[in-house]
Amino acid sequence: MGKLTYGMNVSVDGYIADANGDLGWSVPDDELHQYWNDRTRDIALSLYGRKLYELMSAHWPSAGQAPGVPPVEAEYARLWLAMPKVVFSRTLESVHWNSRLERGDVVEVARRLKAETDGLMEVGGATLAAPLVRAGLVDEFQVLVTPAATGGGTPFFPSLGKWLRLELVENRTFSSGAVLLRYEPVRG
């Protein structure tokens, strides 16, 4: 059975994007980028919503060949292209780069994929993660707190009908001042 993780760069006030949808404040330095590369290398299957897939697929397929691209970014481009992806969308006609399109209910499909997948899975993006968090399908949260405050925007955690108790399983501080907090839900 797969282990479903949800992780993103998060502002100190809890947002993954500012009120205008801008992620520029969260661009990682080489050390943080290497963390995400190492994590991506271990992913057996990644779940994407349309918006994040379009953002990623507009950049990463050609990023590795750009003149002067830092090695850590070229490595991520290769990893992203090779990583199996399931893209949830009712509007996209096709997807590329080791991706397949899924139009079914995200909670039902994620349950099935967890049962069929050996290894780590990830859900990308707060919108797609929200129903999976509410359904209790996320097995680990990786909150990479970035030293910036946005004052509003898209929250990492969705509104919840009840408290979600978490157990800290790892914390790590990066030279940039970013802090990784890995949590597992307390079950039962």
Automatic annotation (TrEMBL):
<protein>
    <submittedName>
        <fullName>Dihydrofolate reductase</fullName>
    </submittedName>
</protein>
<dbReference type="GO" id="GO:0008703">
    <property type="term" value="F:5-amino-6-(5-phosphoribosylamino)uracil reductase activity"/>
</dbReference>
<dbReference type="InterPro" id="IPR050765">
    <property type="entry name" value="Riboflavin_Biosynth_HTPR"/>
</dbReference>
<dbReference type="InterPro" id="IPR002734">
    <property type="entry name" value="RibDG_C"/>
</dbReference>
<dbReference type="Pfam" id="PF01872">
    <property type="entry name" value="RibD_C"/>
</dbReference>
<dbReference type="InterPro" id="IPR024072">
    <property type="entry name" value="DHFR-like_dom_sf"/>
</dbReference>
<feature type="domain" description="Bacterial bifunctional deaminase-reductase C-terminal">
    <location>
        <begin position="3"/>
        <end position="180"/>
    </location>
</feature>
<dbReference type="GO" id="GO:0009231">
    <property type="term" value="P:riboflavin biosynthetic process"/>
</dbReference>
